[in-house]
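Practice set, problem 2.
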Amino acid sequence: MLAAAFAATAALGAATSATASAATIRDGRARFEVLAPTLIRLEYAADGRFEDRPTLIAANRRLRTTRFTTKVVNGIRVIRTSRLTLRYRVGSGYFRRDNLVILVKVGRRVVSAHPRFTGPPGPPPPPPNPPTRTQAPPNSDPHPAPRTKGNLGGWSRGLDDQTGPIPLHDGLLSRDGWYLLDDSRGVILTHTARGFTVRPSRSAKAYQDGYLFGYGHAYRRGLRDLRALTGAAPLLPRRAFGNWYSRYWPFSAADLQALIRRAHSEHVPLDVLGIDTDFKAPVATFAAVADTVLGIPPTYPYAWNGWNWNTDLFPHPASFVAWLHSQGVAVDLNVHPSIGSRDPRWAATQQRSGGLIAGSTSCNYFMADPQQCGVFDWTNPRHDAAYFALHSPFEREGVDFWWLDWCCDESRARAPGLTEDTWINHLYAAHNRARGSRWPSFARMGASYWSYFGPQEPGAFAEHRQTIHFTGDADATWQMLDFESRFTASEGNIGLPYVSHDIGSFKGKHLADDMYVRWVQFGAFQPINRLHSNHGDRLPWEYSGKARRVAASFLRLRESLGPYLYTLARSAHDSGTPIVRGMYLRWPDQNDAYRYDREYMLGDQLLVAPVAAPGDPGQKTVWFPPGTWVDFFTGKRYRGPRVVKLTVPLERMPVFARAGGIVPSQPYGPHEPVRPPDPLILTVWGGGAGRFRLYEDRGDGLGYLGRSFAFTRIVHDDRGRRGTLVTIGPERGRFPGRVHRRRWELKLIGVARPATVTLNGRRLPGPKVGTKRGWSYHATKRTLVIRTGSLSTSRMARINAAA
């Protein structure tokens, strides 16, 4: 039946082959907008009032012109693009299963999709106003089912108090090949002081507004459509892709300076320092609460709500922040969105805001009577101004960005179609852009504290524009480490490239050596590698022996991957494809790509399968996709598709490069370099052809949104017995701080010893070891190392290793 329907529609297309004059088709109270071959907007307005303004989700509907055909046949409106066909019975009312069908090509099949809107047509419900938190207890199901059959998983507000896998809200991608993003209730963005308005009241009349993504198995196409419709993810500053450290602990400035110096002496790079809530000046002590609830000594200065430095710990904050910057370290501060009446800035905040909202039970939990707790209404422009005014003195002192730890306060953004997380993250991102900063919000996302695992709202699909997802206070279990391997890739299915777990977990104090090392290894191959805990040990020198050595080596490895990760982040900005990618994005027709969801691709070059089980050596079952895969650490080769159970010593991790793959890296440094690195190392795995497009810019600022950046194309041509040819550049583009000359070091792994090596037709000296220009060959590792010397980045370089 479906094949016949498609054939009939194809015939219709032949009869009306000209492109429609406009991408909008209206049939009475129904309106369709063809936004892309795989994306159609479905809007039904019983009152005839359609919506053309941007929403929090649909920030951009002006996409490229799409060829399509349309005609009414026997009362059925048929719209056909190159990828899907829509059929709607004209005059049949709001969209339902019995009057609307979309035929989507999924691999070699044609699938019949019946989009279902999440709620009954009509006005949006009133804003929620629950008095207490609704966070769920830890999930006991080790394999929670998807909320919608076929869906590949999406997001959750966080992992607070969880010990293992939890159910996820739906993401965009489904094995069914389509998804309906329901934006019927989403708020409308405006240029008013408030920044938004709720959907117009329509009494009891039906209104539906959604986006039908019909990508089939072209999952990347679906993510690209999502990016085009909803906007691009930001490109984080370069240093964000190094190593982060924070700890819930009352550090002083002297403590943290000593920590940075210790890291340098231990050759452990650090790039971002998060200072948790105890930087704030305490206004009271909370002996009873701290002692009975938190297990913390009664003298502990508990100051969640303060907006001033504790000068006993930080006597000269501006000088301290300047010193961190001189060490190449960015700094973020942990804040909670409330303020106490004893705070020195209370009166000014009250005046600026026009009066805060009085907090109740949760907000007052950590405040001593008779102190009043004030919270903010983020839908009130005066409250927003007062809230961000509290940040300004810290920003003038050089604080780079903010860690919004909204877990126990009562600040709110209550409006139909809005959630607190999404709106405050939106405001933080706008605030930072206004001051010229790339940093978005660093926070939980998609829901609210008061409805932690509540119904899905559309706002989560805007979070990639504005949020580094802080996943919260997870438990220290192997099951949680294992689930986090899947969780990051799943959130990529809503276009979110930046997910930040507490590496080592929040709650574990001193982890077992194997758990600590395996978590650090996992973090080294994640979008953000942030060591964090509640009074726990997360630095290598807090362990001993092998655990200390291996953890430090993986933190150095993470730092070396900066050029690769930065390029992937630019790709996420440009295309919507996340940094961490489920295996199905590349191999959608392989069932094992869905089954083995605790491994992922880091870009297109590296397959990562974190070990999440005790033991040295540990065990990991890995599915190798079609092709040849080379062990990142040993050079051993595996031919896929196949499943292999590996025995992995603690000093290694299951990471595999695609044969022919190219990964750029940089030499050791105590932090990410300010300028693009020189020399730059290219590791190339023989056995196949490959290419890589290296991205570079000044590393910070908003110039990347214009033309202030450059790409360098790198091509690897494996000629088999004839040898290997690598072509570099020339660099295309300009930006302040670009290097005009650069040394390249090529490491070709799994290749035969060459007879000669030439650079632009001239022979390089060799074989020599340790030379600045020339080549050497390591027979046992089958690795060829070539050093070019200093070359102009404006000219192409051809390196030929001939047999």
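Problem 2, part (b): a different protein.
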Amino acid sequence: MRSRMARVNDRWMSIALSVLLHAALLGALLYGWLRFRQPPRPAPTLAIEARVVDARTLQGAPAKPAEPTPPTAAEPPAEPEGPPQPTPEELAAREQQRQQEEAATQQRLAEQQAAAAAAAEAARREAEQRAAAERKEREAAEAKARAAEEQQRQAAAKEQSEREEDLQRDLAEEEQARRARAGPALASWQSQIAAKINRNWLRPPTARAGIECMLNVTQVPGGEVTEVSIGECNGDQAVRESIEAAVYRASPLPPPPDPALFDRHLRIDFKPD
């Protein structure tokens, strides 16, 4: 925009200088024409007739005859003042030069206008291209945002569906486990675990009849025991330690008859007698 304004200012400055130049040229031509149009005025001369008289003549002496006065020479014509009046050829040459200067000025103005128009057209095209590029970038960004939003929506829907499926599966497993625990299968499995622990128990000398201890057993899938703690127990410390060692020796524990019965944390009522 600044370069465009600078070109416009240069154009107007060229026009003003051209107008001032032509005005000065026309004024000089007009002054010369008015100056040389007036006819030359002859220089003023004084015509005086006189006779020379000798002093002796005035005193009575015979005077010499007067010499004839030489004829006055004609004065040369006065030369015209100022520069000579231009000839028609010079006037024609000056007019031709003026026309050439005007034509050159017009050509410069036309070239400046064409350059300004070309610059304006280039700026307009550049602005259109920039606007088109920005529009494409905006559309691409919007399309990318919509695709990301759609992908997030699909991922959320899939995750929600998977959660619902997991919930339904967990509910089904819990229901199956509840029904299994309500039947005789759970009691039978616990009896098998207690029997295996009893087979691996080494009775200490301090053990007495009627021992009953509540065992808290943690296992992993496959029956491997990872932790044992003794709850309520009527045996002494030696009995408690021997029962704990028997649980580890009984690992892996017998698997449940129904996979729905599997539980990581078991409570087993151990009665060795």
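Answer key, part (b): The two ends are 106 Å apart (CA to CA). Helices lie at 2-37, 55-58, 88-182, 184-199, 237-249.
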